[in-house]
Amino acid sequence: MNATPDTSPELPEVAELPEPQRSLPLSVLTVAATTFSVVTTEMLPVGLLTSLSSGLGVSDGSAGLTVTLPGVVAALAALLLPVAVRRADRRTVLCALMVLLAAANVLSALAPAFGVLLAARVLVGVCIGGVWAIAAGLGVRLVREESAGRATTVIFSGIAVASVLGVPAGTFLGELAGWRWAFAVMGAFALAVAGLLAATLPPLPSSAAIRLGAFPGLLRGARLRAGLLVVLLLVTGHFAAYTYVRPVLERVPDLGAGLISGLLLAYGIAGIVGNFAGGALAARDPRRALLAISAGLAAVVLLLGPAGGSLLASVALLVAWGLAYGGVSVSTQQWVLAAAPRAREAASALFAGVFNAAIALGALTGGLVADGFGTTDVLWLGGGLAALALLVVAYAKGADAGHAKGAATG
């Protein structure tokens, strides 16, 4: 991430810093609120899965499409939207995406049938992909270089806070007033965030137009490919299991619906801690952070199945799951930015595309396993993929060393 001043094409962005630096705290927090909005909207069906499926007359596996479909669309939007908007001001683009997110949530709340809900979730996918591709790389534009890692961590904290406040609050509201009200409230919140973006962000003109041809060139970098593969494995494994965490928890003895909402809250709080802890470690050494995260995820997800007969063990493992997964987004993003310091927005678009494709793939494969074998079997799939990610991270050091040695001798 530390490009030299006389060679980095990111200098036009850094040159803009003196003016927006004065509004730094509020601008960074507003972008964090944006990521909170899209992630909460994306994950709302997780906490509402049972009531949503019964209300619309579909199976739990079919209801999982409300997570899968936005992920597929978001993966495409993350790559195509930055190309489509090219030199448009990023503040304007973010505001437009949040207005669209508000409309999609209102349509979800009013959906008379499952097909209409899926159509609304397509719009949600466009918003998710666009926001991720743009917001993920804004830390370096809103602060000076020495604070970029901290700003990126704060922006990604919106993801963890979505788990703490968004999904549990949506679950509670769904149980209290019905799942439609959860979407309606998120629609109003997204509209408010659009207003905050317009009021607090400085102008953010694009420094260079992104073209589709830039992505294959970036993928020739071994370190970037390794980072994206880790994203694919960790996120696919996580969402294969976490999308169906409510049905899994419902099998634990003495665990009622009210306690499940509390457990999801505890999971989210642990995720916030994991986000900042993982971000602090990843700012110094992304590989070490991902080694710890991959090992932790593999262990806790694989153990949650056998521990299903114990309330205490299930609670402890769910909290540990939140702690480990909380650092995934910021740590993998730090890896990607470090691997492509001269093409941050294009690398962020690739990161967002792979991340959201993995969400869709995880929800889809989890649904197939849940419907075909049982909801607890998704834990074996999720833990196994996390173990594979651990092997990739461990191998990546050797690949980087070999690449560096070849470059030196070449």
UniProtKB/TrEMBL annotation:
Pfam families linked to this entry: MFS_1
Residue ranges of domain Major facilitator superfamily (MFS) profile in the record: 26-401
UniProt KW keywords: Cell membrane, Membrane, Transmembrane, Transmembrane helix
InterPro entries: MFS, MFS_dom, MFS_Efflux_Transporters, MFS_trans_sf
Membrane topology classification: Multi-pass membrane protein
Highest rank taxon of the organism: Bacteria
Annotated compartments: Cell membrane
Transmembrane segments: 61-81, 93-116, 122-142, 154-173, 179-201, 222-245, 257-277, 289-305, 311-328, 349-372, 378-396
Protein name: MFS transporter
Organism whose genome encodes this protein: Streptomyces durmitorensis
Taxonomic placement: Bacteria, Bacillati, Actinomycetota, Actinomycetes, Kitasatosporales
